[in-house]
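Exercise 3.2. Students should predict the tertiary structure of the chain below and write it as structure tokens, then compare their answer with the key that follows.

Predict this chain's 3D structure.
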Amino acid sequence: MSQRVLEVTDLKKHFPIRGGLFGSTIGYVYAVDGVSFHIDKGETLSLVGESGCGKSTVGKAVLRLFPLTSGQVVLNGQRIDDMSAGALRPLRRQIQVVFQDPFSSLNPRMKVRDILAEPIRNFGLARSEAEVDEKVGSLMDKVRLPRDAVNRWPHEFSGGQRQRICIARALAAEPDVIVCDEAVSALDVSVKAQIVNLLQDLQSELGLAMLFISHDLAIVEHMTHRVAVMYLGQIVEVAERRALFGAPRHPYTEALLSAVPIPEPGAARERIVLQGDVPSPIKPPPGCRFHTRCPYSMERCRKEAPRLRDDGTGHLAACHLHDLPAAENPLLNKAPPTAFRAA
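Answer key:
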């Protein structure tokens, strides 16, 4: 039986907009507006979507880097969204993060040894300095860097090496969950592949759960177990990797997959170009938030927000098209995307 490590229910984060003479609240940015998901031990859930859809805000909210508007975050069976900073501090060891930019997230005034030793000391994971040194050396082994590199400064490493140090720092706290917030998007293609393979190996070895936030569907298809697709602050589809890439059940997911480059030269595929721009998160459209750009939009979509519903196989989608007879549903009568038929 799988072990539930992280569970998020109806998560909302609305940022106030200040204005006027006295800085009163004149509106809100609905960055995250009712997001729910779970991650089991040893599982990777990828959160994907366009820039500005709220992916990174979800990651920061789960990490409690700012207060939530509403919703619940349960970590290893313990609710943490309503905890005080003092009560939460010892639990922060269980959930760590790897940020997008490995240079700005490392202290340039600290050597690698001190960077890795800091969480070990903070959470009392070693009884002596000799044990700290041994743990630091072991972390360098895990991320495949030489042990003698601990005496160097962050600026002496390449981008990929710095990201390995960031991963080692996250592992230093011996977490159960790691949030990877665009952790490979700033790296070269070859280095990106190495880091993804490293994360997979570490997950297999340590049984880590991962929330992998990314806009790169090719990377996501390679490394994830399940995928959650976000649009304008809400999750519109959640499914196991093969099911989602092979037969998307939401028009937005279908459009995203059509934009992924085809690995087979000369292969034909219909490119779905969405019309218009993403609506403002300050004033989301009524009904389905995707209806202003959806090629299948109906009158009902403009008035009624669809619920995220399970089709009976664990594949969840928020789309009114699935209330139509199967023969009339355009999403169920298309061949799978060319790039993923053999996945």
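Discussion points: The chain has a mean pLDDT of 91. The chain has one domain: 4-340.
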